[in-house]
Amino acid sequence: MRAAVLVFPGSNCDRDLAVAFEKAGARVSMVWHKDTGLPEGVDIVAVPGGFSYGDYLRCGAIAANSPICGALKKHVERGGFALGICNGFQVLTETRLLPGALRRNANLKYICKLVGLRVETADSAFTAGYEQGQEITIPIAHHDGNYYADDETLRALNDQDRVAFRYVENPNGSVESIAGVLSENRRVLGMMPHPERMAEPSHGGTDGQAMFRALMDQLATA
Asked: What's the Enzyme Commission number for this chain (predicted)?
């Protein structure tokens, strides 16, 4: 599997994400935000956490209009896989590759801590390494992680089994405790928690490791 990790001014989780992919066995390329194309043969594009462009305007809004996001959209439109984590999730909603929006946390404070997540579906390349209903522990670190979608969108997400994760105890006010959602073709995942920060024993746990290993297995046969 070949992964491309996008890098924007203000990204600070790009290297962590690259290492998680590498340890799972992927070949990883780092791709700068001013590039207009992706490396040949890329299977999955990963949009990392951080504070792209200083989170000016809205979190992820400027990054969504960068040259590389044009290539990201084309990659997704032709059936490619994409993963957005934290600020990357915000970018994916700003590009409209995923529905909904990420708003200021309900308590108006930055939150950085371990949280419990419940796996809502194992029916995706991202979550195939978990069991439906399994509870895992993954860290969050965000100020604007309060997921919002209108009633029609929520019905579609629930009816189509596209809610990937929910918080066990909602830390930020997200509607229906949603922590991660899938695209209609189930090949794009956006989530606020950071699985790359819980991917090896030195991190204090390995609950995020299953996502990267499952991606390796699933994309090998996709």
From this structure: 6.3.5.3, 3.5.1.2
Residue among 86, 94, 120, 142 flagged as catalytic = 86
Domain that holds residue 148: 2-221
Catalytic pick from 75, 94, 142, 196?
196
- Here the tokens at position 75 are 């990659």
196 is catalytic: yes
Summarised one tens digit per residue, pLDDT across range 146-203 is 999 999 999 999 999 999 999 999 999 999 999 999 999 999 999 999 999 999 999 9
Q: pLDDT tens, 102-128? A: 999 999 999 999 999 999 999 999 999
Q: What CATH number has the domain bearing residue 187? A: 3.40.50.880
Pairing of strands 2-7, 44-47: parallel
Provide the number of structural domains found in the chain: 1
Active site residue 40: no
